[in-house]
Amino acid sequence: MKKHYQMWEKLGLNLEKHDQFLEPLPGLYEDLFVSQENRPVAMEYYDFVVGDIHGIRVKELVEEKKKGNPVISSFCVFVPEELVAAAGGASIGLCAGSQFPVPTAERELPGSDLCPLIKSSLGFKMDKICPYFEVSDFVVGETTCDGKKKVWEILDKYIPTYVMELPQTKLKTARQLWESEINRLKEYIEENSGREIKAEKLAKAIKLINKKRDVLQRLYNTRKADPAPISGRDALLITQLAFFDDPARFIEKTSALCEELEIRVEAGEGISEKGAARILIAGTPMPLPSWKIHGLIEQNGGVVVCEETCTGTRYFEAKVPEGGKTLEEQIDNLAERGMNINCACFTPNEARVDDILRLAKEYNVDGVIYYNLQFCQTYNLEYKKISKALKGENIPVIQIESDFSDSDTGQLNTRIQAFLEMI
Ligand code: BJ8
What is the 3-state secondary structure of 312-371? Predict the structure, then answer.
């Protein structure tokens, strides 16, 4: 890691804090990931990426910037990364899954009653410990929940923050708004990067990002087998890394992993015992390095086989139709994808209930853990109707509210153990 100090210094990182932040990562990663028995060989690539998490990829982005290519960051699966790729740039989904920068963020934000993801997002920038933030030209925020839309006003003091107005319904007028917002972002990227987004390039970008979605779907398809050929924590890690790896390389490496997993499925080989309790996690996102819940489930003998989250199926299931020839048609298609993502920030949001019931069947799950980041009201409010629908199908469910700290690990462990025993 020391070999990157010069680059980090140039980017303006707080090296001392950055060292403190990264210090526990290798041990944690070793315990949770590397020590798994019978792990797929192709996980080597992702181990390598995590092993140099603030190094090689950041270096690539610095090089991209030298060539005049934009680096644009975001926090939500609605932000169309295709536009960034069509401008010749790199789109980075920033992490916000750590407790480390939360105390710093609390200097600007309420100490209680606020989602940890929001605090973590701002804290990474305030602490200057994320090179991806520092290498970004600007951040794209969105008006999803109230906390997020207000934090952009504060983040803008630290880094230019452009805000997309995300509709809250799926009405025709809301779709028109979303389409005009995608157009507005396109113009903003063009102005800031000096790159014109042409139909031909956007068509290629749409295909490329759809391929990334396809390979993630292929990975998830292998998890439908019993025994599951890959652990839930490894699958989660792969989705987390999909947000900032180079898309073409990610597709190549993940395709190679899928080939290995498909052979395992054929041979009936798995990461866990056949018949291990199969869990679907539904709810709020788990950005890097938020691995706590998966760790607890799998260390207690269960296996996570699917995530209905934005670090799961909400990231890749909805695709952009590829037929658009003109920019107008393509932007209409980009808007279409957004309307097929069922985030709890929409009202009504009945399709999310259908999604969860469908996933529970497709992945043949024994139970659902409804994961709610503390103080996320929209997801919390949807729990009752979702649990009712699941119970109606005789699928056991519990709700777990948590943050990114370890303070509740013991209590969560007891609840998860009891749930796994019950199913
Ligand atoms: S599409 S889930 S990434 S908004 S920040 S809403 S957890 S209180 S993240 Fe999200 Fe886009 Fe929706 Fe997905 Fe709740 Fe926290 Fe708000 Fe959050």
Answer: CHHHHCCCCCCCCCCHHHHHHHHHHHHHCCCCCCCCCCHHHHHHHHHHHHHCCCCEEEEE
